[in-house]
Design a protein that fits this description.
This protein is of the alpha/beta class. It is built from 25 helices and 10 strands. Helix 8 packs across helix 9 (202-212). The chain is flat and about 100 Å long.
Length: 583
């Protein structure tokens, strides 16, 4: 039996032109080789399975080829190319930093760099998962990376660039590999199917590409698994069954029940999904994706963001036509709330079922209306006729009374006074759950504008009396005495002088005291302005370095100094026991 080779190895690109989905990077590397602008170190970073190590090998093979072609592709016939193909090249070294992460491994690598190449022009060192190296290993490698011999080239590959030291990053040319697009993966899988004589449906390949999440190696691994399961024929039904993926038909059917208001059908379909072994969280996540697709199809400019076949796009367009953007936004908000609450919920099935009922009420408000003549509940989404109702509401608002001309007074019928917002029922101001619609905001603004707002009459500032000022000043000092000792010590020795206009002169011993007060001046002035009822109170400062200020101890050392003046033995006691007062 012939040995099987997985597609990820069998169809691994061996030239820059065959690399999938990284055109910008491959073009840059080819131009660097052509112009002779090769750096001494490269850093390839990006998610798994996007071609970092593949591009590193192609670069190493290309710069060592003795007879490159006109497009700078390796010839495949020279001694260097043959050694690379047979995994026997003496110029290309691959090191797995995940298992060789110590400083000794880096020192051995540095010693090996000193030996020039025997065949070819360059010795290329490819270090994979370089972020796994220890800090000591990075430091041992740093000098060689910065000033290597002319024949040495380093290519570092990592999935976590943030874990690499900045000193390493500054010495490398950094190439950020992007996730491979769905279309690129689908086209690559089609090419493989043609070479392997495998009949396939495009929708089946698209599901594999979406499941791979931008990683070509993951897509090829799933492709091999599907081929082993289905043989030489790959269908959409087989793929979703093998990968345990919910069919998009399920979501089309579920959304149709939302629009019809068929609650029983929604719950039965969800029960069938659970019986088939799918998790409720997976179903809710797929429902969010379906709603996003419907939202994207609302506008032709965003329809291109939908990664699906033209036939499927047309189905999304037909289903989203009766819906409004506001409804879809609110539906996505409900799904997002369910996603956030799912893990903490004790009854996860009930949580998803409540989501389905809310979506039915959103897209078919009459389906969950009240019975027995009661008023139906307010729907979570705004119906299409809401703007007409709003226009009628605006039209029915009574106009403001205009002063009539001087005519004999006529008796007018008594009109009931309009209710103020405080007298209105609380339900009138209660917003609906979920997103607030535009119509509800307009109605709320009309209700609020109906009540005139009376601005408070400004009051004149009271003059500052010396006696009242000192009382307030002493009250503030008592307030901060215990919790703000530094500010209290400075303010208590500032000898404030007040004027009726509100200018307070503070005497400072030095500039440092003034700076301390200025940091808290807003708090002090706010207290004084409130208590004295004068918003114009301000501070003026006078620094008098010749004046003697009575310093009050407030720190531990100052208090201890005052105690030593009274009892000198305390100092000897402190030094004998090696006490520390700075706590």
């Amino acid at each position: 039996m012939e040995d099987f080779v997985v597609s990820a190895r069998k169809y691994r690109p061996d030239t820059f032109d065959t690399v999938v989905g990284q055109h910008a990077i491959t073009t840059t590397l080819k131009n660097a080789i052509k112009n002779g602008h090769l750096a001494q170190a490269f850093l390839f970073c990006g998610p798994r399975g996007v071609g970092k190590t593949t591009c590193a090998r192609i670069l190493a093979r290309t710069i060592n080829c003795m007879n490159p072609g006109p497009d700078l592709e390796p010839c495949g016939e020279c001694e260097s190319c043959r050694g690379f193909k047979n995994n026997a090249s003496q110029n290309i070294y691959e090191l797995d930093a995940a298992s060789n992460r110590s400083v000794d491994a880096m020192r051995a690598l540095v010693e090996q760099v000193r030996i020039p190449p025997q065949v070819g022009k360059y010795k290329v060192y490819i270090i994979d998962e370089v972020h796994m190296l220890t800090s000591e290993a990075f430091n041992a490698f740093l000098k060689t990376l910065e000033e290597p011999p002319a024949y040495a080239k380093f290519i570092l590959a990592t999935t976590e660039k943030n874990k690499i030291l900045a000193t390493i990053l500054s010495r490398c040319q950094i190439f950020d590999f992007k996730r491979i697009g769905v279309e690129d993966i689908v086209n690559h899988l089609k090419t493989i199917c043609q070479k392997e004589n495998i009949a396939c449906e495009e929708d089946a390949l698209r599901v594999i590409a979406q499941k791979a999440d931008g990683g070509l190696r993951d897509a090829l691994s799933m492709f091999d698994q599907m081929v082993s399961f289905s043989g030489n024929s790959l269908t959409y039904k087989q793929v979703i069954s093998m990968l345990n993926i919910l069919d998009y038909e399920t979501y089309f059917e579920m959304f149709g029940y939302f629009q019809k208001g068929d609650v029983s059908a929604c719950l039965n379909l969800f029960n069938m999904v659970l019986e088939n072994g799918f998790d409720g969280h997976v179903f809710a996540d797929g429902l969010s994706t379906h709603l996003r697709s419907l939202l994207l199809m609302q506008d032709a400019r965003t329809a291109e963001l939908l990664e699906s076949s033209p036939q499927l796009r047309e189905r999304y367009r037909e289903q989203t036509s009766p819906c409004s953007i506001a409804q879809l936004l609110q539906a996505l908000e409900l799904c997002n709330q369910c996603d956030l609450q799912y893990r903490e919920s004790n009854n996860k099935r009930l949580l998803v079922e409540m989501l389905l009922l809310q979506l039915v009420r959103l897209f078919a408000p009459a389906a969950l209306g009240a019975r027995g003549g009661e008023a139906p509940s307010v729907p979570m989404g705004e119906p299409e006729a809401q703007p007409v109702k709003e226009a009628e509401a605006v039209k029915n608002i009574p106009a403001a009374p205009v002063a009539p001309a001087a005519t004999p007074a006529e008796p007018k019928p008594a009109t009931p006074p309009q209710a103020t917002p405080e007298q209105m029922p609380q339900a009138a101001f209660r917003p609906a759950r979920g997103l607030t619609s535009v119509g509800s905001l307009k109605n709320l603004s009309l209700q609020v504008e109906a009540t005139p707002v009376q601005e408070p009459t400004p009051q004149a500032d009271e003059p500052v009396q010396a006696e009242s000022f000192m009382q307030v000043w002493q009250g503030y000092l008592e307030k901060i005495k215990d919790n703000r000792p530094s500010l209290y010590a400075i303010l208590s020795t500032s000898s404030p002088e007040s004027s009726p206009e509100g200018r307070i002169l503070l005497h400072m011993a030095n500039q440092s005291s003034r700076d301390t007060i200025e940091k808290d001046s807003l708090e002090v002035l706010s207290y004084l302005r409130t208590e004295l009822k004068n918003k114009n109170i301000t501070f003026d400062y006078h620094i008098d370095e010749n004046r003697e200020f009575v310093a009050k101890p407030y720190t531990a050392n100052e208090k201890f100094a005052q105690m030593v003046k009274t009892n000198a033995e305390l100092k000897h006691f402190k030094e004998t026991l090696h006490l520390n007062l700075d706590i």
